[in-house]
Each structure stands twice: as structure tokens, then as C-alpha cells.
Amino acid sequence: MQMRRINEPVPRTRPSDRLAHTTRLNRNRVACAVVACLLAYGVARLLVAGIAAGSTTTDRVHLGQMIALFGLPVMVVFGFGAWKRHAGLLMVGTCGGLAASLILFAA
Amino acid sequence: MRETLRTRLGWLHGWFGYGAGLVLTCIFATGSVAVFNMEITRWMQPEVRLSAPVPPSPPALDAAAHLVAAGQARGVSAFIALPSARSPTLDVLHYNGHEFVGTRLDPATGTVIPARVTAGGGLFYNFHHTLFLGPQAGTIIVNIAGMILLVAIISGVVIHLHALVPDIILLRLSAARLRAWLDAHLLMGVLFLPFMVMMAYTGVLVKADMIVPVAPRPAARSVQVPALPPAPIPDMTRVQLAPLLAQARASLAGQEPGFILFAPQRVSIFAGDASSAFLTRDHADFSLPEGRPLPVDATATSIARTMQLMHGLHYARFAPPGLRWLYFLSGLCGTAVMASGLVLFVMKRRCHAGHRWAHRLADGLNVTVIAGLPASMLAFLEGNRLLPASLTGREDWETGIFFTVWALCASHALFNALRVQAHHAWRVQLGLVGLLGTSLPVLDLLCSPAAFHALPGLHMAVDGMGSVAAIVALYARHRLGRQGA
């Protein structure tokens, strides 16, 4: 990679390049937002099922719903916001794995 | 453009906020008004002039039981709502698919009050939690919007974290318009952040079963059980409700009875929702037709109590008038946060996207939601006074007025916005809100002077809110006219 001198003017990007870059950026953001929402929702459902697993009363279901609905928006923001190397999505997926293990342990 | 956490969450906040904000503004506005749903229903029934609640007399309870029996004979499942500070009549109500409607009785004598049939404040309440799209689809849409509100709040807090404290005291109305709108959005957003989070979270939790249901358990065995014949309904006219009510009051330990519900084999007397911040729905059951007390399990675990508190905080039925006003004003400020967010979203994109039809559509939708909705709400209240009191299907007419006026406002706004004349649509519709708001007290005084004299506080509050809406709308129109679009 060629280094640019510090006093060298920033190379101008053509409007068509800028437009293509913005379009690509927006497309990636939409895709990431959709994936983050779907993943977070799946994890929330798993959390409810995991916390309620093995219990016959509604208390555990309510507890699971309280935790899941608190965590769902946080997971969406985190999954979308921490985009470098998809760290956010991986983290949310890990939460899903933990929630799924709750179900397996209860079974 | 370099991608940072702030730019990324700013995009999420803007697009998620705008997409759901159109619906959320309507939900928050109608929810704020629905805090006073019973008071609005009383305002919309000027024939009911009881000011203070009195305990229901035995003849009044018997008359109510007769009405319930008559309803059951027609296949209508009705219940009795006992007098309370907010609604001093003895009501026999049933659910018509949208609202609780029915007959109002004088709790002292048991005579039927010839009150006009009205959709009442129940319209705002129903719109708030179902958008009038039915209990299933509507509630799910409202829940998803509530969840997106939480996402928008969290992303908004993250992007403004560095200036969260200075934003509380920063409002530069004389600065550039975009800056002034942003200041207003941030100021109210920061001040009412706890309220909005509380309402969004408790609101989603109220219907949690619809958004995160627990997976259905597999049926133990699939044995076909023959359908039992319906249990015979006992003769309700022989049931003495007054002694049962006295027993229920004793067993509900400090909670005032609020509702009487009937089942084929028993009658349940429920504690009123105003009894405490916990929406417990404690009840005392009695067998029918003997009236023998039935055992009730009233123990609640800490999780159940927490859920009851969440419900109670959202519905705010425990709240005394002062706290109710605080809920109302906080709700209006939350609505203003969302409305200013909608305006900001369109203003920020006007320079580079103003020529696009999508931008014009967004401008038209903003006018529909921010100016059209208050206009239709005021038209709904005025329609109550203008429609004949004995009109058949009156509540449907009132609901029709609300939606027709709103649809007309939407058509007008979209027509003008798509012709790049959104400024004209703003001016006309804000003027309409001003006209309807200022004419509301006049119409109320002309059409129901006796009710105004009997309940001056109630009528002045509702009419006053109409007038305040008119003043705000006319001021906004004045500013819009001076500064241009």
C-alpha cells in the first residue's frame, strides 16, 4: 500500500464513486439491521423458552419475558452497532447459544 | 464517509425512528388522551350529571342484575361496573368488539339514565393499543412499534451520550431552524427519557405473550373429548348482590370492589383497578344461585407482583388526578419528542432529497400525523355534540367522523405535499385545528349548558384542552407563515 504524505491534498473522489459508496453503505446497513433484528428476536424467544423450561408455573414465563423484552432492543442496537468483524452479531448469537443451552439443561 | 459508531447508530435512530415514529406519534397522542378516557366518556354523555359516587343501593344492584340477565338471554355477556370516583354511575357493560358500551344506572335509585350512546374515551384507548385494526393484528403492530421505540431510545442515548447533561438546559429557539428543532427534540427527549422508557417497556410487557410467546407445550395425548353441553344459566334475578358485595368488601382487605362478573356457576366480585399501583385483580367468588363463598387463592409470588406493578404503572388507573395530569403532560411531551423527530428527519434530507417523491410523501405523512390527528380528535368530540342524541348506531357514527376527518386530512396533505406545497397543507390543517379547538367550548356551552353547570370542572378541563390545542396550532401556523417552509 502506498503511503500518502501528510501535506499532500486529499484525493478528490468523483461524485459517481461517492454515490456508489453511499449506496453500498446503505445496503450493508439495511442488511445488518434486518439480520440484527431477526437474530435478536430469535434469541429473545430462546431466552423465554430457556428460562421457562422445566417449570409448570407462569412465573418463570413472566420472568423470561421480562428479561427477553429488556434484552431485545439492547441486542438489536449492539448487533447493529458493533459492526467491526461482525462482533455484535457474533455476541448476540453467543447469547442465543447460551439461551439454547438453558433449554437443553432443563430437558 | 468514515463509518463510526455514532454515524451508524445515527442512521439506525433516524430510519427506525421515522418508520415507527409515524405510528408511535399516534399511539402516544391517543394514549396520553386515554389517561382521561372515563372523564372524556362523561363529557360525551352530558345527560349523566352525577358529581360524586354513592355506594350502590340494593334496588340499584337488583336492577343491574336484571339487565345482566336480560343481556344473557339475548346472548350478550355483560358485567357490572360499580361506581367510582372517576365514573359515579352503576354501569352494565359489554364489549362490542371495540369498546365497553352499555346502560348507565343511578346508583342510588337504580333508574336508567337516558344517556346518549357514545364511543367515548374508549375510542382513544382502543386506538392506542390496537390502532383499531383488531385485537390480534393491531396489538402486534403496536408492540413492534413499542420495541422499535426502545431501539430508537437506546441508539439515541448512545449517540448523544457525550452531551446528555448539557442538552437538558440547551434550547436555542432563535438559532437556525434545524438547530432549534434539534434542541427541542433533545431537550424534551432527555427530560422525558425515563417516562418514555417506562411506558414503552411496560406497554410491551403488558402484551408480552403476543410478541414473545412461550413455545406451546405438546399435548399429552390427543384424546377427543366430547363437547360438554353448555351449563344452564341460573336465574340472575334471584341473586341478591348487596350482601355478596358486603362480604366481598370484607374479604378484599382494604381494596374497594370495582366489577361484578358472572359465570354460569359463580359470580366474581373484583377489586377496582384504582385500589393500588399493583393491578392485582383480586376477587371474591360466590356460587350461584346460593351465594355461598368459594375458596380463592390470593397468594402472589414476587414475579407475579412485579408483573402487576408493570401493568399498574402503564394503565395508571391507581393514579389520583394530580398524577394523572402528570401522566397526560408527560405523554404529550413524549408525543412532541416523536413529532419533532419526524420533522427533523424530513428537514435534514430536504437539501439533497427534496425533489424526490418519497421525500414529499414523508412530508405529507408528517402533516397527516402531526396536524391531521389532532384535527380528527377534535372533530370526534364536536361530532358528539352535533349528532342527534337518539341516533341509531351513534357510536359508529362518531367513530366514522374521526376516521373520515383524518382520511380527508391525509388526502389533503398528500395531495399538496406531492405537488411540493406541503407548506400550504401545514397552514390549512393547523388552521383547522385552531378552528375546531376554539369552537369546542362554544359548542359545548350551546349544546349542553346544564351539564356544564353541573360539572364545571370536567367540562372546563376538556374544553380547555381543546382551546390549548388551538392556541398551540395557531401559534405554529403563525410561525410557519412568518418563516416560510
Mean pLDDT of chain B: 89
Uncertain stretches of chain B: 219-223
N-to-C SSE series of chain B? HHHEEEHHHHHHEEEEHHHHHHHH
Biggest sheet of chain B, strands in spatial order?
A: 3-2-1-4-5-6-7
The geometry of chain B reads as globular
Give the SSE string of chain A.
Answer: HHH
Question: What is the overall shape of chain A?
Answer: elongated
In percent, how much strand structure appears in the residues of chain A? under 5%
Computed CA radius of gyration of chain B, to the nearest angstrom: 25 Å
What layout of secondary structure does this protein have?
The complex is a heterodimer of chains A (107) and B (485).
Chain A: H1 15-52, H2 58-81, H3 87-106
Chain B: H1 5-34, H2 37-43, H3 58-73, E1 79-81, E2 90-95, E3 100-105, H4 122-130, H5 137-159, H6 177-191, H7 193-206, H8 208-211, H9 241-251, E4 257-262, E5 266-271, E6 283-287, E7 293-294, H10 302-315, H11 321-348, H12 350-353, H13 357-386, H14 394-418, H15 422-447, H16 449-454, H17 456-483
Antiparallel strand pairs in B: 1-2, 1-4, 2-3, 4-5, 5-6, 6-7
Helix pairs in contact in B: 1-4, 1-5, 1-11, 1-13, 5-7, 6-11, 7-10, 11-13, 13-14, 13-15, 14-15, 15-17
Can you characterise this structure?
- The complex is a heterodimer of chains A (107) and B (485).
- By secondary structure, chain A is mostly helical.
- Chain A has a domain at 43-107.
- Helix content of chain A is 77%, strand content 0%.
- Among the domains of chain B are: 49-117 and 235-288, no CATH class; 349-485, no CATH class.
- Chain B is 60% helix and 7% strand.
- In chain B, helix 1 (5-34) crosses helix 5 and helix 1 (5-34) packs parallel to helix 13.
- Chain B is globular.
- Chain B starts with a helix and ends with a helix.
- Mean pLDDT of chain B is 89; it is low at 219-223.
- The A-B interface holds A 21-22, 25, 29, 33, 44-45, 48-49, 52, 58-66, 68-70, 72-74, 76-77, 80-83 and B 1, 3, 5, 8-9, 11-12, 15-16, 147, 150-151, 153-155, 158, 201, 204-205, 208-209, 211-215, 301, 303-304, 306-307, 310.
